[in-house]
Amino acid sequence: MALSSKVFLSTTNAPIPIIRNSLNIKNPNQLIPSIPLEHFDYRSEHANKLEVFKRIFREVGEDHFEGLAMIDAIQRLGVDHHFQFEIENILQKQYILACSNGGHNHDLHEAALRFRLLRQEGYFVPAGVFNRFKDGKGSFRHEFSGDIKGVMELYEASELGINGEDILDEAREFSSQILRKWGAAEVNHLSGKAIRDTLDKPFHKSLSRFTARDLLTTNFQSTNGWINILQELATTDFNIVQSLYQSEIVRVSNWWKELGLSKELEFARDQPLKWYICSMACLTDPSLSEERIDLTKPISLIYIIDDIFDVYGTLDELTLFTQAVDRWDYAATDPLPDYMKICFKALHDITDEISHKVYKKHGWNPVNSLRKAWATLCRAFLVEAQWFSSGKMPKAKEYLDNGIISSGVHIVLVHSFFLLGHGLNNQNVELIDNNPCLVSSTATILRLWDDLGSAKDENQDGHDGSYVDCYMKEHPDIGVESVRQHVIQMISNSWKDLNHEFLCRNPLPLSFAKASLNIARMVPLMYSYDENQCLPSLKEYMKSVLYENIPMKTPFRNATLP
Fold it and tell me: What pLDDT, in 10s, does the model give residues 464-479?
């Protein structure tokens, strides 16, 4: 939202991250031919091998460590949606083992892996399990510096810490120092890359759908016979899901074209692929195809309405528009320009359409919650417009409190909650309506990451504020780099808040908590700008996930199983 360019940096502050000039796809229908039709012949073979691997998983997974290793590999290869029942059965046993202090008490790799996998699925394991790896002085024992797998997993585990768990902060510091030394030593290409990936892209803060490709194309040298079978299964699954994503993009593109907003609103960003990315990241289960398509629709409106407030509307018009949304009254738009009327009608129709679908499928009408969420977003946009109009510099806390709402995260997640349809009751709906910490922590991460950037929004003339500006105005003696480090620490603390809410999420369902985590995981990809203010990392990820299928090493039907 626009704030005074005289006192604010010209930084991006758009709600829900925007991919700037990274993927220039004029016609998403061109995506379809990228997967040869013969890949669809693998579907029945894929189903057969899936059943075979489930049997292997149930048998081999009885071993304490092998069960953990298999879950880790399944999740990293992005096929865990096929094994939820088996994973849950193993983790329940692992949780009992963790609580009884059993297993290999002095095996750092196993202990850290168990801790991470359990916490990732919502099991609260005390961080004190790592005390056994400390010496008499309270420091992690030096002998573990040679256990590279154990140290890598300790670093991964430290990412699931919550506020007050000092031992995980110490674990992170200890493991990161060792990993940097090992990474600099470049023992070999594969281990060096694995170490750098662990430091730069820890699993808990990454999206497996974006990172799995590297593992799928790696030639594993392992004594575990099941890993190559799983890799082959995951490769075919990747290609099948990719074809699903492509068909969804085409449907989203056709919907946007038929809606006609890009013609009616000349300023409207015509970027259906970009809007779809957030839905794809948020709702990862391939079975949620309709939900991803429906979620893309309100995301598109966040962008359009943000442009209206940030660039095109006058303060008087924006005030009337906000009142119309607050009252949900189309007649209240009569004094407004046609483009605002068209936008409000689209908002009205899409909200009613999604509400009808949710009611039909889940028996709950979310229309009041959705209307309330849109009104709250517009009021936050209006506050920023008023700041810009008056030239007022808000206090840092005031800016951030409002920015958490204007980020648009609540809109995305409230729609996700109802589209998922789990835990629909009065208690949960009231909680979701009031922007719970699970949502606000995610929004804080997005807003602060956004404000750390310095790229200018593409083709936008508005000027956006940042938390950095507000904080420096209040603390003129502090340099910009010190403020940036302060913001990075705030992001780290917000991740700890998010971890806490995930572990203590009751009564909110696990599916919704994971959707919130996925939005936070997507944020760094959306703000890793290069010197040209582009997003090369995201561009490469999107190419690999959406366009480039992975060739099968051998004909699927000829693969052998033990």
Answer: 578 999 999 999 999 9
| 154, two tokens | 């300790």
Give Cα separations from 318 to 13, 301, 305, 324, 523 (angstroms).
Answer: 18, 16, 10, 10, 29
pLDDT at 387: 94
Cβ neighbours of residue 97 under 8 Å, at least 6 residues apart? 64, 103, 114
pLDDT, one tens digit per residue, over 82-120 is 999 999 999 999 999 888 865 556 799 999 999 999 999
pLDDT at 551: 82
Report yes or no: 497 and 420 within 8 Å, Cβ to Cβ: no
255 contacts: CB under 8 Å, gap ≥ 6: 272, 293, 297
DSSP letter for each residue of 136-171: TTSSB-GGGGG-HHHHHHHHHHHTT--TT-HHHHHH
pLDDT 10s digits, 183-219? 877 666 557 888 999 999 999 999 999 889 888 877 6
Residue 482's Cα: distance from chain center in Å? 27
The separation between the first and the last C-alpha atoms of the chain, rounded to the nearest angstrom, is: 59
Are 24 and 227 contacting, i.e. CB atoms less than 8 angstroms apart? no
Give the predicted TM-score (pTM) of the model: 0.89
- Angle, CA 77 vertex, CA 229 and CA 197 arms, to 5°: 125
